[in-house]
């Protein structure tokens, strides 16, 4: 069982080393889950004497007012033989064999944290004592409860101490060691009052009665020690402290323990209780109880630790990796983030994520609808045909077929297709920009670095703009090609189709009659509709080739080229993570380290049992 207490000792020291000592924090705290014994008492209740009696050494600072101003985690380790020594958690490689020096270091370390004021601090001091005269035990000595602030103390000191003590003893894993002086009315005991508030049934409280030998003549503490005056689940334990004269004379603690045993054995009122009185008995009882509590809590601790490790790993993953320190690392990190963004963008286009289907909607609905709205039949109305045919003839009318008129009619009709073609290019451009913005918002790594997010967004949009311009040129060229060189086979069939007005050999005198012009308009309309149907298929191909395909292939190519020219400092400006997130990541990483170490420690103890 002894290694159970040693286990908790190691975990508590690790908690404090990483700043986890029960303060309010959004981070999960292992400290709160560890069983501990909190020593509570009012000023001058004999609290320090009880601790020194358990240890068998005179090592605690003494004086008037509030002497204990920081929690002191006192870890006792029983050794079989050898010289007694002490070690502080903040001075791990220094051994103290002079316990007067231990007392001085407690005072000095308190002042380092609080200054030379009389303020208090919640940051614990860790003190380990190794001795053949102690039991394996861990106690947390808390500042003495007080009712009035003295000179040099803030007005809030009374409430501050009360809050600190409560923060320890309110935890369900806390064992309360309530120190009360026998020469004062138990009803006024600060320790009993506060422990009753947090543990009304007395299930976690050990009552310790000090200064029994200083009670008025004719009175005794039997009713309290036998549990009649105030009942707790565990029996009360009486202690006889060293007198001030003994302290002044540096009376040996071993001798003081012997006197204590003799007092209870020889005093008629307490003779029947002597077997469960005294500081030695108190240490053994607390050690055994602490071991039992720790053993019962191990399954719960394992569950808490495993659950918290998963939560910490999840949050660290969400926060992303820390920023590299060298230029190469920063460049690699930026490239990897950009690749993640680029992958998400491609998933939108390929259908793994929503959005790419909007491009198909442009080709299947928007472009055909825009082409229908061109109304070529109105453009080829008789008066417009007459006007363009006549203008095309110039001063010299055509001899056979009005070829220039045909070309002019076809060109003016097909030019109007440029509008819907450009609109389709712009529509796809808008969708691609929308998908870029969507992909940026879905790239969690970019959320860490606002400057990089802006640069990537700007670079992507600039690329899309270049692709849009190239797509417009290519698409307009498709339209211009159609009216620059007509499909001859279509017109070669016309003379063979007399019934449809295809014979161009009419007399020069009837070439401008309504029937003739109507046939010309109908022929041009048929040709324009044929070309329009062809462009309806080829325009989407051009757009996909120039915009969608290129966006998938080279959206950030220019950005990568420019990135390779930047120095480490310039790369660092892109990785401008929020300092609060950086600090959060460091805190979480430390906490995860603590919990993994705790997991290993507890598992090793559990397996050994």
TrEMBL record:
InterPro entries: Dynamin, Dynamin_GTPase, Dynamin_GTPase_CS, Dynamin_N, Dynamin_stalk, G_DYNAMIN_dom, GED, GED_dom
GO function terms (MF aspect): GTP binding; GTPase activity; microtubule binding
SUPFAM superfamilies on file: P-loop containing nucleoside triphosphate hydrolases (SSF52540)
Chief location bin: cytoplasm
Domain GED residues, every copy: 517-609
UniProt keyword annotation of Hydrolase present: yes
Keyword hit for Cell cycle: no
Keywords associated with the record: Cytoplasm, Cytoskeleton, GTP-binding, Hydrolase, Microtubule, Motor protein, Nucleotide-binding
Subcellular location: Cytoplasm, Cytoskeleton, Phragmoplast
Record-level GO cellular component terms: membrane; microtubule; phragmoplast
Domain Dynamin-type G residue range list: 31-299
Protein family according to the UniProt entry: Belongs to the TRAFAC class dynamin-like GTPase superfamily. Dynamin/Fzo/YdjA family.
Protein name: Dynamin-related 5A
């Amino acid at each position: 069982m002894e290694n159970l207490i040693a286990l908790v000792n190691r975990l508590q020291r690790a908690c404090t080393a990483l700043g986890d000592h029960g303060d309010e924090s959004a981070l999960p705290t292992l400290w709160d889950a560890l069983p501990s014994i909190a020593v509570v008492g009012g000023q001058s209740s004999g609290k320090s004497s009880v601790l020194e009696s358990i240890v068998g050494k005179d090592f605690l600072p003494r004086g008037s007012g509030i002497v204990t101003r920081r929690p002191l985690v006192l870890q006792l380790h029983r050794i079989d033989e050898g010289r007694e020594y002490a070690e502080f958690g903040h001075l791990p490689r220094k051994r103290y064999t002079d316990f007067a020096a231990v007392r001085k270091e407690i005072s000095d370390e308190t002042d380092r944290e609080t200054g030379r004021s009389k303020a208090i601090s919640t940051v614990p001091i860790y003190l380990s004592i190794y001795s053949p005269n102690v039991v394996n035990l861990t106690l947390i000595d808390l500042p003495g409860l007080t009712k009035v602030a003295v000179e040099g103390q803030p007005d809030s000191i009374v409430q501050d101490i009360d809050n600190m003590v409560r923060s320890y003893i309110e935890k369900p894993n806390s064992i309360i060691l309530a120190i009360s002086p026998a020469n004062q009315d138990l009803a006024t005991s600060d320790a009993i009052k506060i422990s009753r508030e947090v543990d009304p049934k007395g299930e976690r409280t050990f009552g310790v009665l000090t200064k029994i030998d200083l009670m008025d003549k004719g009175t005794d503490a039997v009713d309290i020690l036998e549990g009649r005056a105030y009942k707790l689940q565990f029996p009360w334990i009486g202690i006889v402290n060293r007198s001030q004269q003994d302290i002044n004379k540096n009376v040996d603690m071993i001798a003081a323990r012997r006197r204590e045993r003799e007092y209870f054995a020889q005093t008629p009122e307490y003779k029947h209780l002597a077997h469960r009185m005294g500081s030695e008995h108190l240490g053994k009882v607390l050690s055994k109880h602490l071991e039992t509590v720790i053993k019962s809590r191990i399954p719960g601790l394992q569950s808490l630790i495993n659950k918290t490790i998963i939560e910490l790993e999840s949050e660290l993953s969400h926060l992303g990796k820390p920023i590299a320190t060298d230029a190469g690392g920063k460049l690699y990190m930026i490239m990897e983030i950009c690749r993640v963004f680029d992958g998400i963008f491609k998933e939108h286009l390929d259908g793994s994520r929503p959005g790419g289907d909007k491009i198909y909607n442009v080709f299947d609905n928007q472009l055909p609808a825009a082409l229908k709205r061109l109304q070529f039949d109105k453009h080829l109305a008789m008066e417009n045909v007459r006007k363009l045919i006549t203008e095309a003839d110039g001063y010299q009318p055509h001899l056979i077929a009005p070829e220039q008129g045909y070309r002019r009619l076809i060109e003016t009709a097909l030019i109007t297709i440029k509008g819907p073609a450009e609109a389709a290019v712009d529509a796809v451009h808008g969708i691609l920009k929308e998908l870029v913005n969507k992909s940026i918002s879905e790239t969690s790594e970019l959320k860490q670095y606002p400057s990089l997010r802006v640069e990537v967004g700007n670079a992507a949009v600039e690329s899309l703009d270049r692709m849009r311009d190239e797509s417009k040129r290519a698409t307009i060229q498709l339209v211009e090609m159609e009216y620059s060189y007509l499909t001859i086979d279509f017109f070669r069939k016309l003379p063979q189709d007399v019934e449809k007005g295809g014979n161009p050999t009419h007399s020069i005198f009837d070439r401008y009659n309504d029937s003739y012009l109507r046939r010309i308009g109908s022929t041009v309309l048929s040709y324009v509709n044929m070309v329009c149907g062809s462009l309806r298929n080829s325009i989407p191909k051009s757009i996909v080739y120039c915009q969608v395909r290129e966006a998938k292939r080279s959206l950030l190519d220019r950005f990568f080229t420019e990135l390779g020219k930047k120095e480490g400092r310039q790369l660092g400006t892109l990785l401008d993570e929020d300092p609060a997130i950086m600090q959060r990541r460091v805190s979480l990483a430390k906490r995860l380290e603590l919990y993994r170490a705790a997991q290993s420690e507890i598992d090793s103890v559990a397996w050994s049992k």
